[in-house]
Write a structure and sequence with these properties.
mainly alpha; two-stranded antiparallel sheet; 23 helices; 70% helix; disordered N terminus
């Protein structure tokens, strides 16, 4: 409950409320409360909405726009660069495979797939614990620390000589990278409104397809070197890229600000505005950064929208991670006579096109404050791409299919995390919801490591058939989720907020989270 009658009287705010029931059974609530300033709304223990979820603060659009631009400049570039090298350090094993990685380590049969799987096992295990640790420690310290960890792991990969050592290093890499994607998504949710979040998430998640493009260019450039400190061929890729990651992570310890209240580059007025505008969208919330407690953690994990969106992200990640690891292999089957460097360069263009759509769909999501509809729009692009790959043996047709697949697949990272973030209330629930979503996504990543198997080449009917099935299921699930949210919102409109909240303390009302009677799903 945002403010009980007792709270209102204590704070000296003149308040009254009444409910009107319309002919269709919808209850229209109105609470007459004196508007707050941004400074008042930002105060800890004070709500920025009434008990019906109506904002108590009206913000100056020009001041918000100026603040948003300032946050964009100070926050987004650092996390985007870190995520770029996070994804490069994860996916560069695909580039190393083309440079005799398997041969030098003595990998045979399914050994390569086993090495990929080890990464996802630790990633999945540490996903939710990592995001809760991120909230507890603070993103400003946690994100640079894990970035340094996976940079060191990448360097260590350059010194592996058998499947056992490379598997151990990949397990540690997964442990450190587990907190990266959900940690940054949670971090940005501290700074941005619901409608703004998807586009800002896309500005760092776009680094995934760019990592495919830039990683291919960087790998081909590194392979032109004769040696690097006594290291040769694929070992140079891991060492050089790991060193770059470590350097960036050390710099980020000094550049990442934990939260608006501690930002030295914001004035006090800007800090109040940053806190109040986020708070004004969270019904029943009296503080943006609440204490971790079990009811809110479970609310985030077991929200119907979290679970369904996470399943969609799982299906999507089978395609995204499969494309990252096996795009070089697919290109090799299309251009078998080309040099290794030429094959690396041919993996770049599909990722560039995918990067464009990764930003375009979330940008439109920001403008329309909608997320789910873009799931429905993106899925058919992937379906058409895999149908082309399965139905044709023409090499250029298959290469063209990779462009369509990348166009539809990569935007889901931003859209899914934005959707689960928008459909919980508390900071704790948001942290666990994002962690759950990304955990499911990486179960999809684990499946993807077994979707393109050696015996299935060069056409990979199993891998492409599986991805056609997952994109089709994504399409159907997205439609069903949108319809359910609309139907459930209509049911919520008919509930009596006052009756449902009667007898509850402010703490109990806040712990309701998405079960709060004034809460509405936001597709």
């Amino acid at each position: 409950m945002a403010i009980t009658d007792a709270n209102i009287e204590e704070k000296g705010i003149d308040a009254s409320h009444h409910s009107d029931k319309s002919d269709n059974g919808v209850i229209n609530h109105k609470e007459d409360i004196q508007e707050e300033t941004a400074h008042e709304a930002a105060e800890r223990g004070r709500a920025a909405t009434d008990k019906y979820g109506n904002a108590l603060v009206h913000f100056d659009p020009a001041a918000e726009a100026a603040l948003r631009w300032k946050i964009d400049l100070y926050i987004v570039p650092t996390v985007a660069l870190l995520y770029l090298f996070c994804f490069i350090d994860r996916a560069n094993i695909g580039n190393a495979k083309l440079a005799k990685f398997e041969l030098e380590l003595g990998l045979k049969g399914y050994d390569y797939n086993k090495v990929l799987s080890i990464f996802y096992i630790s990633y999945i295990i540490f996903e939710i614990p990592s995001n809760m640790a991120c909230k507890w420690i603070g993103p400003g310290w946690f994100i640079p620390a894990i970035s340094l960890g996976f940079g060191v792991c990448s360097i260590c990969t350059a010194f592996c000589h058998n499947i056992h050592t490379v598997s151990a290093v990949r397990f540690l890499l997964g442990m450190f990278e587990a907190g990266m994607m959900p940690g940054i998504a949670y971090y940005l949710s501290r700074w941005y409104r619901r409608s703004e979040l998807a586009f800002r998430l896309s500005l760092y998640i776009v680094m995934a397809p760019l990592a495919g493009a830039f990683g291919g260019l960087l790998a081909s450039g590194i392979l032109k070197l004769h040696n690097f400190g006594g290291l040769h061929t694929w070992r140079m890729i891991f060492a050089i890229e790991g060193i770059i990651t470590c350097g960036l992570s050390v710099i980020s310890f000094f550049t990442l600000t934990d939260r608006p209240a501690t930002a030295k580059w914001l004035t006090q007025e800007e800090k109040d505005l940053a806190i109040a505008r986020v708070k004004s969208e969270r019904v029943g919330t009296t503080e943006v950064l609440d204490k971790i407690d079990r009811p809110k953690i479970l609310r985030g994990i077991f929200s119907p929208v979290t679970l369904c969106t996470a399943l969609i992200f799982l299906l999507n990640n089978i395609t995204v991670q499969g494309l990252a690891f096996f795009a070089p292999t697919i290109v090799k089957t299309i251009y078998p006579k080309n040099s290794v460097i030429s094959q690396q360069l041919h993996t770049v263009p599909p990722y560039v096109v995918g990067a464009f759509f990764t930003v375009l769909f979330p940008f439109l999501s920001w403008r329309f404050d909608k997320r789910n509809i873009f799931f429905i729009v993106s899925a058919p692009l992937m379906m058409i791409g895999y149908i082309m790959f399965l139905a044709s043996k023409d090499l250029m047709t298959r290469y063209g299919a990779t462009f369509l697949i990348a166009s539809g697949a990569f935007a889901f990272g931003a859209l899914c995390n934005a959707q689960v973030s928008a459909n919980v209330v508390s900071d704790t629930a948001r942290s666990s919801a994002i962690g759950t979503n990304v955990m499911f996504g990486n179960i999809g990543g684990l499946i993807s490591t077994w979707s393109f198997l050696p015996f299935d080449g060069p056409d990979y009917h199993i891998g492409n058939g599986l991805n056609l099935a997952t994109s089709g299921t994504t399409f159907l699930l997205s439609i069903c989720l949108l319809l359910w949210m609309k139907v459930d919102n209509k049911k919520r409109e008919k509930r009596d907020v006052d009756a449902d909240l009667a007898g509850l303390s402010a703490k109990q009302a806040q712990d309701l989270d998405w079960r709060h009677p004034a809460f509405r799903w936001k597709p």
